[in-house]
Amino acid sequence: MTDQQPPPPAHEPEGSHATGASSASEGGSSTGQWDQTLRSIGSSASTREDGTLDVLATIGGWRGLIESVLPSAVFLVVFTFTGQLWGAGIGAVAVAAVFSVLRLVQRQSPVQALAGLAAVALCVVVALNTGEAKDFYVWGFITNAVYILVMGISVVVGWPLMGVLFGLIRGEGLEWRQVASRRRRYSVATWFVVAALALRLIVQVPLYLSDNLVALGTTRLAMGLPLYGLALWMAWLVSAPAGQSPADEQRMEHPDRHR
């Protein structure tokens, strides 16, 4: 199953609405509206009351963790003990389908409910098409490579993805892009997540090439959402604004502009 990586929601500190209004007047109405849109997207916080990142909530809580792990675990266990690729595939899809039905019954978003099922089904189809159980994990390699590429490009072009996501949580909108120190911190934060994704490939691709299915499947479970959550937590720490807003940091970097 592909590693689910839900974006973190946000927490809006005091005074952020005033800052957003200022951006609208100084940078044009469209910029201000976009900044306010970003803030509203992040209104359902995955932060605790003390402002720290709630990693478990960010990755979907215990339910999200189980939904991510269990279909792959069923596939690995069934195939290991029976050697039946069809049986393992049906078992994995059945488990994912149960989770999807539960979400639909609870009237959650159909896209959210069916995304996990679609990912598992795709992994099973790939394995059945090649006749190799290890190919159940190929789609995960592809998605990891795409995430690495997208995040790397985001840093190079000056829009580090962790800055966009964490900017929602911290109520910064896009103001952090105006401050060199914030851009650097969010670039480093993004590289932390890239490193975690790259580590998956470094460890798992050799296991795939060596046909070590049990080691590959077990490693995939261990390096799925748990590793991603750890990377998010570290990225959150290294990008912390040290108790200052982007406007405060900008004044410290360019004091002559604010006299």
From TrEMBL:
Keyword presence, Transcription regulation: no
Compositional bias ranges of the Pro residues kind: 1-10
Bias type Low complexity, positions: 16-32
Keyword list, A-Z: Membrane, Transmembrane, Transmembrane helix
Disordered: annotated span: 1-36
Parts of the chain that traverse the membrane: 73-99, 111-130, 136-169, 189-209, 221-242
This protein's name: Intracellular septation protein A
